Amino acid sequence: VILLILxxxxxxxxxxxxxxxSNITTDLLFExxxxxFHSEEAPKRAASLIPKAKIITILIDPSDRAYSWYQHQRSHxxxxxxxxxxxEVITSSHxxxxxxxxxxxxxxxxxxYAVHIERWLTHYPASQV
Length: 129
What we know:
Belongs to the sulfotransferase 1 family. The chain is mostly helical.
């Protein structure tokens, strides 16, 4: 089993991370990314390139995921994440400044698991997800 972490499927160097395929190998290839599951384009692209793939998702509590993304943004010195605490970002209303609402959406939307699973199921049968 080969596990690839954060290889970014849609970058130009993606295939450089994989060994040359062989018809005699029984190896399984896995890739881990926190960005594909909630992507609107990834399921369609993946299904067109790898229609027989088995899609495995490991989910964490959506609130933990939201906080993790907020901390990720702080570590990358996102000005909004540095200016406002997590509670302020998550509880902001639609009247809040656009930069807070943008960060709020980026924290919360990936945790809408039912929405994302439905999207993947439009491109893969349930037996593959």
